[in-house]
Amino acid sequence: MKKQLSFIFGLLMLAISQAQAVLTIEITQGVQGATPIAIVPFAWAGNNAPPEYMNKIIAADLQRSGFFNPLPEEDMIATPSEAGKVNFADWRALKVDYVVVGKMIPQMDGSFQIQFQLLDVYKGKQLAGYSIRSRKPNLRITAHQISDIIYKTITGVRGAFDTHIAYITVTKNRKGQKLYRLAIADSDGFDEQIIYESTQPLLSPAWSPDGKRLAYVSFFGGRPKIYIQNILTRKTEEISGFKGINGAPAWSPDGRRMALTLSKDGNPEIYVVDLKTKKFTRITHQYAIDTEATWMPDGKALIFTSDRGGSPQLYRVELNRQSKTIGRPRRLTFDGNYNARASVSPDGRRVAMVHREQGKFQIAVLELKTGRFQILTKSRLDESPSFSPNGTMIIYATEDKYHGILAEVSVDGRAHQRLSLQNGDVREPAWSPFK
Amino acid sequence: MGKGFKYLLIAIFVVSLAGCKFSPVKNRVSDKDAAALAAKQQKQKEAENSAQDQRYGAEMGGSFVGRELEDPNSPLAKRVFYFGLDSSTLSPEDRNVIAAHARYLSAHPKVTVVLEGHTDERGSREYNIALGERRARAVEQLLLVQGVPSSQVQIISFGEERPVALGHNEAAWRLNRRVEFLYSGY
């Protein structure tokens, strides 16, 4: 008995230590493998196939994060749909740390009641359980919300599955013209919705901090201009249409200002515009390229690309509330001769960028405090990194068989994932803020 | 040094260059490439110009007939200039041809030109927009310094958004790092 108890205690300690390991995954390199979890197919009473396979959506989400290793369905010994019917010994035998069970119950009004429970296999207890009412068009979103709950409960970090990505696609229309589209989709690339299309180039989508609007650059009318479009209402406002470049829009964290690039004074310079008063303040004064500004999360500094030192590198400049610069821009990157297009992690600790190494363009991350520099990707045409709102993943554009595709990498470089979208080229992903 | 004297010097320089034959510069685009490219560009331009949101109207019109521009043996037939990686520097040969364009523009004040700057597909897009503009501006500066009024010249950068060569290798990239002359009003 005593032996058995100590064995169980040992297992418990193992489970706890694993849970802690997951918690610290972001900053520790020593974590071995992903946490095994089983997402059991949700019970479904209907005669036809269920409207969505919730378990598959959840398992794909968790797998994509790199923190979890979902058990393949065919390896499951049993498919219980509620905690009371779970035989924990079965799942221990399968070396699974957590089990998720659930059911989808059709309601009279056509909606669905979705119940799920997250169980700790070694402790033999429930960690989370919810009942959610959802309708058919929203079932995928409900599944992402369940993924978020599971992720948060186990890792302690807020999940970012129930978020969106915006991106640009390029296809050809029937006349053979290029067709540029700005689209949004769920964070897993499903349920694409096109919000703007043009036969002229379209680039640099940027989310407003409230997640309701997108800024972008369109060449409609023959010249690049910056627009803000409300995603729901389609209402569009021209923000900047000066002579020359109007590019690289970036919202301030409070949504009141926007950093952008204008070349009206002769060469590309960073400006900040107050979106209410439309007052433009010039930030950089350099006979070089200054562009691709992005804000620090506290709104007190910008990080931007400049080739003032002879090659494109990232610089940082401090700003006050009136968008007046404090001191001179300071160079941040020193590895290699090409570091551009910064994306700052939501906690302000890391900067992702496009880095050139031996002629290859890859995504790299710089830790601001320690100066630690890490190349995360291995292909040759990687660009446009964008942090997930919880800071754990970076989505970026790359190529596959000469087509532009989107891919994700975890900030520690361990988990790599490609997003499969439709035909044509996909580029410039931008991850939305939390809902 | 007076402005007039400066222009005289440039004019002498240009005239003296015009008489010389230049050996081909390394890494330059071959004639065959250029011919294929020109055909491709023509096709693409036609497709682009039939777009709903067309960019360049012909409203500047006029009865001027620009024979010189249509002469395939004139230096003015060369309307695309290529650049090295990360570079906005023009070769001496190209500077010479651009000087001929400058003379043409000075002599034909009703003619306007749009200089389109482009880059290859590598690296970040907004930086490439800036780099394309720098290339277009380098050409513009050559025109202006030779006396072309700025009202006759416009620049625009498309960065990497409008490649003419669709490959993903150096052969395509070097064709895409370019500035194009688009004349109107002749």
Q: Care to describe what's here?
A:
The complex is a heterodimer of chains A (435) and B (186). Chain A has four helices and 30 strands. With 435 residues, chain A is mainly beta. Chain A has two domains: 144 residues, TolB, N-terminal domain (Rossmann fold, 3-Layer(aba) Sandwich); 268 residues, Neuraminidase (6 Propeller), CATH 2.120.10. In chain A, a hairpin with a 6-residue loop joins strand 8 and strand 9. Chain A is globular and about 70 Å long. The N terminus of chain A is likely disordered. Chain B has a four-stranded mixed sheet. Chain B has a single domain, classed as 60s Ribosomal Protein L30, Chain: A. Chain B has 186 residues and is an alpha+beta fold. The longest helix of chain B has 21 residues. The N and C termini of chain B lie far apart (35 Å). Chain B is built from six helices and four strands, in the order H-H-H-E-H-E-H-E-H-E. About 10% of the residues of chain B have low confidence. Chains A and B meet through loops of A and helix 5 and strand 3 of B.
Please give the structural blueprint.
The complex is a heterodimer of chains A (435) and B (186).
Chain A: H1 2-23, E1 35-39, E2 43-44, H2 54-65, E3 68-70, H3 88-93, E4 98-106, E5 112-120, E6 125-134, H4 139-155, E7 164-172, E8 178-186, E9 193-198, E10 202-207, E11 213-218, E12 225-230, E13 236-240, E14 246-251, E15 257-262, E16 269-274, E17 280-282, E18 290-295, E19 301-306, E20 313-319, E21 325-331, E22 339-344, E23 350-357, E24 360-367, E25 373-375, E26 383-387, E27 393-400, E28 403-410, E29 416-419, E30 425-431
Parallel strand pairs in A: 1-3, 1-4, 2-4
Antiparallel strand pairs in A: 4-5, 5-6, 7-8, 7-30, 8-9, 10-11, 11-12, 12-13, 14-15, 15-16, 16-17, 18-19, 19-20, 20-21, 22-23, 23-24, 24-25, 26-27, 27-28, 28-29
Helix pairs in contact in A: 2-4
Chain B: H1 3-18, H2 31-49, H3 67-70, E1 80-82, H4 92-107, E2 112-118, H5 125-145, E3 153-159, H6 170-176, E4 178-184
Parallel strand pairs in B: 2-3
Antiparallel strand pairs in B: 1-4, 2-4
